[in-house]
Amino acid sequence: MTTQLKNNILERLNELADSRNIQLFLFISFFVLLQFEYVNFIDIPLFREKNGFAFEFSLPRFIFVQLFFGFTLYIIYRMKNFDYFVNSLFFIFLSVPTIILYEFMPNTPIFISLFIILFHLLYYLSTYIKVNLSKIKFQVNNTHSLWYLLVIGFVFLLPFILDFGFIIRFDAFSLSPEGMYKVREIGTDKLTTLTAYLYGWLVRIIIPVIFIMALSKRKWFIVFATIIVQLYLYSLLAQKLVFITLFLTLIMYIHSHFRQITWVLFSLIGIVLVSIFISLITNNIMTESIIVRRTFFIPAIITKNYFEFFEGQAIYYSNSFLRNVFDYPFDLAPNLLIGQEFFPGSIKSANSGFISDGFMNLGYFGVFLNIIGVTVVFRLFSLFNVSKIYNGVFIIIIYTLVNGYFLTSMLTHGIIIMLIISFFMLRNSQQQTI
User: Fold this and answer.
1) Which of 251, 271, 302 corresponds to the end of one domain?
2) I want to staple 317 with a disulfide (CB 3.0 to 4.6 A). Which of 82, 313, 322, 332 is the partner?
3) Is this structure's pTM higher than 0.85?
């Protein structure tokens, strides 16, 4: 009787998690909560003076933002499965913080919000383009794919073992920021061009895919080994995203696409509420500030800063692959330049996402070009019909694009590697279950 009751409760919870009405409530709750947090933070010197945030209420902007929120959510709700999952995550991490910034921040260009609407709209329209990949036969056998990935992973890992030694540096796990920054500085100095590329490919793509693949095949020794290797690579550079990557892939493992979004929204709302509670009982807003400000609003204002700084002076990829064609006009790299210009003493490296990256390089046409690029990338993933158990990897990819340059994300951070793995090894793996 107890087992039956437990099963009934779990079944009911799963039905609620898949409910679009529940997700609508959570989306609205998340939106309102972030609006409240922006207004709440604006009187804090760290938020206002060091990060350049301001507040100004405008009824026309307020009305526009509410309409933006409703219209974009309507577009997303018309999508299915993986496309719904992808657009929901971009909506959470990119669209909502951006429109809240436009709602309350004076002199925020409306074009940023309009381009984001365009991204969701073009993605939705692209779902009507049907491409049949069934005629493409070449694919690695599912039973062999894990072993191929293990060989590739080991080959890519060898340069790190040779350069750093296979020793986990526990200073990277220190709660002291000074200890982590010291590890990061030493590790960065040791990186070569080869290991700089391999690092992103390993920690963001190859190891998480091996982890999930081994988990689905019940290869427990390999699961344990991937955790050790990921901790080892984290200890070399102390990058926080690396530390949580396997955790993200794990919690996304057992849910449907819709249930995953419910879980993400519920978790984010819960984390923000807990951080507010901690602020109230400790009278210290730092935890709340790091969680809300750093995750959502800092990327949004950095995007605004890129639009302000590079207005009328696009750099035409002169700091990248066209450096031999165009002269780069500044002494510092763009991320360091924006950090120095807008966040002196606060943020040294102001990395930004694919929207501002496009504007920096080719103006408004560059933004449109990057929107097309991101849409094509995720439509390919959708057409490859990759199993939902790998969606934790796609969360990392989406967060990378929201906070990183498009071409850098494609090459250095491994999105191209994930496209190759998805095409040859994960295509039509949707039938995989626990």
Assistant:
1) 251
2) 322
3) yes
